Amino acid sequence: MALEYYELQMRQAGNIAAAEYARVTREQYGDVALPSNNGHVEIPTVSVIRFSDEAKATLEKQKFVIYELTGQSIKSLRDSGRKFWTDWHKQYPDFESLTSMHSEVAIHPKQLFIDNSHNKTLAEQEEMIKKFSADLAKGRNRIPNVEAIMGEASDYVELAFQHLDTTGDYLFGEKYGYNYARTKTRVGAGVAGVGRFYPTYGLYVGYWHHDVGGDDVFAAPLVVPAGNR
């Protein structure tokens, strides 16, 4: 059995998680024939980059929340029933199919955005995240073997839905001023932003020119295992 056929079977059966795992694996390995053991299909595993035990313990002590991103995309999440109140990105299939990283990531929900990082260009926000990353390795509260990055749009999108499932809290919603996390994902003439998460309408994905800031467009660092990207 080939991966594409297996993915189709899983979608028809309503097993979206298995279908998405097959899709992501197919993108990495191609539409390979799957080995079977007495009729049981075995899908190649996708390695997940994880925090060291020391890093995880320190992150949790400092009230960071850790999630495991699983290679979801805007398209796969929408197909599984997640709500987006934007649809312009359907015109950009490569953007919609961009998958999140296979990695543990950490955020601090009470410090989701870097202070005063709005009204900045993309380059300025990237520099602020680099400084935030360097500061993680300093002082009495240093966190070993981690770094902070600006993620792709798909990283923030999957993260928002995972956080909602786990806590019931709408990341980028009312508690967060309906602000946006700027991303490094190029789309059209700009870069994508993820935010404005409303219970009624869903998650908003927008984009701005990289040299233009905005009152509601912030740098939102993702803490990942060092050397993840």
Strand content: 15-25%
Form type: globular
* Share in helix: 25-40%
Order of strands in the sheet with most strands: 8-7-6-9
Question: Can you put this structure into words, describing what you see?
Answer:
With 229 residues, the chain is an alpha+beta fold. The chain has two domains: 39 residues, no CATH class; 173 residues, no CATH class. The protein is 32% helix and 22% strand. It contains seven helices and ten strands. A four-stranded mixed β-sheet has the order 8-7-6-9. Strand 1 and strand 2 form a beta hairpin. Helix 1 runs antiparallel to helix 2. The radius of gyration is 18 Å and the shape is globular.
Summarize the structure.
With 229 residues, the protein is of the alpha+beta class. It has helices spanning 3-13, 16-29, 53-61, 74-79, 93-96, 122-136, 153-167; strands spanning 36-37, 40-41, 65-70, 102-107, 146-149, 180-187, 190-198, 202-208, 217-218, 222-225.
Features:
10 strands; alpha+beta; 229 residues; single chain; 2 domains
Secondary-structure map with pairings?
Layout: H1 3-13, H2 16-29, E1 36-37, E2 40-41, H3 53-61, E3 65-70, H4 74-79, H5 93-96, E4 102-107, H6 122-136, E5 146-149, H7 153-167, E6 180-187, E7 190-198, E8 202-208, E9 217-218, E10 222-225
Parallel strand pairs: 6-9
Antiparallel strand pairs: 1-2, 3-4, 5-10, 6-7, 7-8
Helix pairs in contact: 1-2
